[in-house]
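Form 7-S
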Amino acid sequence: MMWNINHPYMLVTAFVLLSSCKHAILHDIKEWKTCQFAICCQCKDVPGSRNLIADCSGKDLLPIPMFPSNIQELSLRNNNISTILDGIFVGNSLMTTLDLSFNKISRIQKNSFKGLTNLLSLNLSNNDLKYENRSFEYSAFHFLENLKHLNLKKNVHTSFMPDLWKLRSLESLSMDYIADKIGILDEKFSYFKNLKKIDLSGLTGNCKLTILTEKTFLFLPQITHLNLSKCKIQYLFKGTFKLLRNILELDISLNTCLRFEALENITTDLQHSAIEILKVNYIHGILEKTTVLKTSHIWNLQNTSIVRLEAAGNRIQTIESGAIKYLPETFKSVDIRKNMFSAGNYLLDVINMKIASLEMSDNTSPYDIISSYVEKCPIKEETITINSENNWLYTELPILKLFKNRSGKFVFPMPRSLKKVSLRSSNVKFELPNLSFTENEIENIDLSDNFLHTWTGPITNVKKLTHLDLSVNFCSNVSKTFFSPDFINLRCLLLQNNLLGLVLPTDVNGEIFQNLHNVVYINLSKNKITNIPNLLFQKQHNLERLDLSENIIDDINFKLFHMKKLMFLNLRNNRISTLSQYAMNELDSIAKINKNLTIDLAENNFVCNCDSQSFVKWMIYTPIVLHHRKEYQCKTSQNTISLRNPREVFKTIQKECMSYEGLIIALTTGILMFIFILCGGIVYRYRWKLRYLYYMVKVKWHDPEPHSDNKDERLYMYDAFVSYANEDDTFVHHKLLNNLEKNGGIQLCLHRRNFLPGNDIATNITSAIHNSRKTIVIMSANYLASYWCMFEYNMAKMESIYERNCENILFLVFYEQMSACDLPLKILELVHCQSYIEYPNDEYGDVVFWEQFQKAIKY
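Output:
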């Protein structure tokens, strides 16, 4: 199939293909190289042969150079060529395609194309070929017997057609045609038995066919594709297309002087033809009154196999009831955009249609589409009009009440085979209620650019829906049940340019999107969102693309880790100053599983300071692709710097934020440890003094004694406190008690007898020592092993130092024979400095011992 590259629809299609095949194109570009025969041209090999494709376009060439014999395709487009020399292509019999468009060629001679016997496609559009200058010599195309495709657009400004009788193989012809009265493609066209496609469109050339009659295409009954768009047609009589039984596609768009009633003549002629695509866009004046699509306009189509009808921009306001029923079963697609539809009973006929695609968007006003193209038309009778100030009256329309059941749910009729419907820019103004569709195959719904301000729902019976567009609707309220479980197959959800920032932050449990398990793309850009709740996307395990750009988000604080398939996260143009550690961890966790994760953080308010060091460091080492990273900038305390090289930025921040925090902590810790050890040493050194003072305060608090200026006059409760081990109590309670207290009259304090019950031991000991004149220590191995005995010894020593002015109140009695090595240093010190006595344990020695003992205690 050969494409006409000057056709606008083909150009759009080509652009889409080029955009979607980027990698293939880049690979193709690499194959081009400078031609050996001409440095101004680019060449590449034809796959599977030694032939070449040469591109010499846009090189300001004046003459056509000689080309080698193996050139198969040649482009000389957009040069300054004015003449095709005779025989210049004599050696190029292998050439199949030649493009000479956009030059200054004013004459085609008899031998201009000599040698091109196998040429299949020739493009001479946009040159200076004119009939007045006799640009075409007789038999100018004599050598092109195998030519199949010829383009002569934007040349001739009259009804003249050059001598093409030799082109018996021609299949498609694009040319200019100017006829101020009746346009007739005369008997010259009878030679073209293989001609299938004729393009006379004024969109890509010069066309004026004021009147069309049954004679216009008399000699072209075999035509399958006919383009008469923008040909300034004013009258189209019945019978014009009657002979075109093989016609598959007819485009008569942008002939606004025809007015809509001409559609009846067109469809009448096309009945029993092979028509599949009929385009009657903008055949009604944009300044005319509104129209009605009547049964008579389309009822003849029931005798055809038409598949698609385009009737955009015709100011259609309503459809006659029952008219839709006359469309054949083959009818699958309709484009009625840019009309002025109001609701009516025709909506009830829609359910019986078997169409798969319904394009009904932009039903506001057609003026913005072709406002620069207004034809001056002859005065005709006024067309039928319906007086109405508004279109799409969707605010409590009586017609809609027909779809409301007893439970308050709206059940909207849908054609069972319909797969795509568009009501974009149709001025629809109402709340999306509790709505269910009849049985359907709907896959794509476009309700964008309307005024659907509240989405209440739930919307049900949409189990095959894969694409939903609700963008640009000023919506600020979405119920948590709007997306029902019937949205199970939804893949693409477009919600951009609304006011969802007022409702989404309140969905802390993620209930709004909880039923969208299989969605792969969500667009929430331009919604004034300030915060995304942590669980908003908790059920979107299959999400691949998430667009949150152009909001006022300051951080990623929502759950991401479960999105294992996430490929692209768009956060462009928000208010992010730095990413939190949580956000960085979430993103990195996905990147470990999905190596193709990309995130766009451009146009955010990044800040480079000590607090953002971790974020800048993350940018260096993260495996995530940072889209448009060269555009990233961050603000410092002094200016704004680029984040193109985050490693250098990190080093700069690191130097500026280098702190002595570690050193300060170490020094502080060292000082505190030193103070702690010092205090511990002091406490340990004076532990007995501190304990003594503590217990003395406690004793004096509970048992205050009379104040006396002379401590020698102090009265004691006991003459002596006996400090001994429990294992030595036999000696103390029998011998010591009898010899000192009974026989010597010395009052002793014994802990088993004299300690006050209820007081703790330490307090009793301190009190007993303090209230005794002397302290007798019965020294033995058991004594040294007893904690409380050593406590009593140290308390007595403290008493002698701090209360008795270093008076010797301790009296040591060695009950057992002990060597110096068995005694602690503190006891040896006392032994060396003060007197002590050893218990003799014999009859004579006992008498002397007890006498000396009594004497030492009393004095």
